[in-house]
Write a structure and sequence with these properties.
Largest sheet: 5 strands, antiparallel
Strand content: 5-15%
Number of helices: 22
Number of strands: 11
Helix content: 55-70%
Distance between the termini: 63 Å
Structural class: alpha+beta
Amino acid sequence: MKNHLERFSRIAEILARHGLGFLAGSVGLERWLPKNAETPADESTNPVRLRLALEELGPAFIKLGQLLSTRSDILPEAYLAELSKLQDAAPPVTAAVIRSLIEQELGEAPERIFASFDENPLACASIGQAHAATLFDGTLVVVKVRRPGVVARINEDLEILQNLAAYASRRWEAAANYNLTGIAAEFANTLRSELDYLHEGRNAERFAANFAAVPEIYIPKIYWATTTSRVLTMELITGIKVDHIEALDSASIDRSQVAERAARAAAKMIFEDGFFHADPHPGNLFIQPGGRIALIDFGMVGEISEELRGQLGTLLFAFTSSDSNKISSALRMISVTSPVVNRGALRQDVTRFTQLYKGRRLREVEITPLITHMLAILRNHHLQLPREMALLLKMVLMTEGMGVRLDPEFSLGEVLQPYARRLAQDRFSPRNLAERLGRAGLDAAELGVALPEKLLKLMEDLDGGVEVHLRTAELDPLVGRLERMGNRLVAGMITAAFIRGIGDLTAANRDRLRAWENPLLGVGVGAAGSLAAYLALTARRQKRRDLR
């Protein structure tokens, strides 16, 4: 606890020195603020001062700032632009310490493991530093070594950040609206996984498998014999950085082709693989001979779950209909926070938004202004995206920015349109309808199992006389669960009716459709029949107990 108190004091002192004493007060650090702390009158410099403070506070806070630079649904543009400049740099660890760490992890000195090992680092960051080396077969590799003591320091700061977020959420309405406690918890999980180089190695291998049949994209090889949670050995990647335009032109690289390849790789990650590189900044992309794109740095990734994929499909389907009611509902559904939303005001903002793009194909639209406008609507109504969705949108924005710099005529919308159309249509495919009906049937069965017992218990309690003391907030989780269950039941019944209707309408051609129709009808009839049979059995058992 003593160390935490010392760290609290240090955080408050740094924030105050950068003119951010008001922020320290908002998160419960006011008693550690220096007495002469002043807040600058010019608030326009707040983003710059916040960046400088985060850099001074160390690795966990730098990583937090980098994460927040992806959250257009939370922070305004001035903060996003400034936080994206955060430099994750640190003084180098001495060669003697690096040698000792490698020997502890790999069991032998570097010269016995590698044919050559350069003790001068290629790069130094707050979590680790990279060294060039050569394997005994002549392969050039990069060896990343985690800094000593960094895990303990980051874990302390993560615990502090979660405490500060909880305090702020109790005292600061904006913090509660934007679910700071949830953001802090997700950030802690993400950063702890980045500390484990085994995690990064597995990510790299997963990307390599996903792009094995795509020769235009190259993923470096991981050498597991010399990789642990603290040391990562990866194939050295050479090439021209994607933002070095003059060098690309000198090498006769077709920049428009590179832009399209990068965009198609991003689309494949999002729409086909459901697993994407969440930090495709220019330093992580190298262009090799023939325009091949090589990716590095796989610590920060995003994964699209089936639930998120379904939400994306619903949102895209709503956008294709230009229906402000559907879009508003889809945005509320995607949000991970549950503020009281003025639905009329949200619908008006969405209507104005859709009017700007109505009648235009995705290939005719600049993606960055579209996403920025939509995120501003979310921010104004305190609707917050899931972390994976925020990372995904940031990746899309970075991909378009890079593409336009490579080729001023580049259109990300043209590349994304066929993928987005397929995702929106897939939401209502027979397979997805069957899966959703199956999930609705499971929810119905669960409700059928629990409901009679709960109702009987309630009746017994009421017969004995009860006093009820409830706060409305305590009902929110129960009401939310019932609403979700009810929505799925209704969706299941509508889907069953829809599928049955298809069966009736196509009865004349039953033989041709039998391959897909019968399984779907079986799911619907089976789910409904099982539920009905169970409820009937429950009722008979209850009646027998009553007769006794």
